[in-house]
Amino acid sequence: KNLQLTEDDWRKILRQGGVKAVLEKKKEIKEQEKKQPVLIAVIGQTGSGKSTLIRRLLGYQPNDPNGPAIGKSVEECTTTSKEYHKPDTGLVYIDLPGIGSTTASCSFKSPTEQEEYATRFRLQTIDYFLLVSQNKFNDQENLLAEYITQKLNKKFSFVQTKMDALREEYGNQIIEENEGFQAVKNMVRTDIQNKLGRSNAERIFLVFNRVIKVEQNGQQE
Ligand SMILES: Nc1nc2c(ncn2[C@@H]2O[C@H](COP(=O)(O)OP(=O)(O)OP(=O)(O)O)[C@@H](O)[C@H]2O)c(=O)[nH]1
Ligand SMILES: [Mg+2]
Predict the structure, then answer these.
(1) Transmembrane region positions (predicted)?
(2) Candidates 209, 212, 220: which one to mutate for ligand 1, based on the most atoms within 8 Å of Cβ?
(3) In sequence order, which residues have a C-beta less than 8 Å from that of residue 35 and are 6 or more positions away?
(4) Residue of 135, 138, 98 lying closest to 117 (CA atoms)
């Protein structure tokens, strides 16, 4: 982030202080870069599991009130954007209200709505995006992927959440560590890649973030 010196700057440093000065300057820049926060926006439709993902990435225990709140089912939960700093990393995850949330009035259908959303949550200032989806893929994710890559000129990774819920489509192998497991995962990846088309995701992550609650009678949900 603008810490790069020009070729002339480097020549000057070399002339004045020799190789040692150059190496020292390089080290200094590296240190500075480490201190620069990297803003990662977690974006996607309401109820897709964005807040759950942030809780997992930052290691919040299930009942820690400092982590982002999670919706009860598919209800709209997050209504304002909030930053979560990952200690000792410079990584800042931004939990955004879901697209499609009516409480937070976040719609992304028309270009005007896209611009409104982008301005409201300052998407121009974001360094990287995690595009979260629970439905494998649909038009909304396509719009978002296109917006991130074409309009904002940024990169993103695609996060497929609720893999456990894709059982109907892919069968039990989706959650069982058997021979079919890897094949099914590859299938899901290929499906996502195909649907993304030219808005290429840097990486595709498949996650199982089901919160397991132990009920009072001892049964797990
Ligand atoms: N089965 C299953 N449920 C999940 C998974 N990840 C999240 N959920 C559930 O999905 C619901 C919504 O999760 P949230 O993390 O609140 O979703 P969100 O994207 O932050 O929603 P908004 O804040 O409304 O945009 C909650 O009931 C979660 O427990 C998963 O991997 N598997
Ligand atoms: Mg949320």
Answers:
(1) none
(2) 209
(3) 90
(4) 98
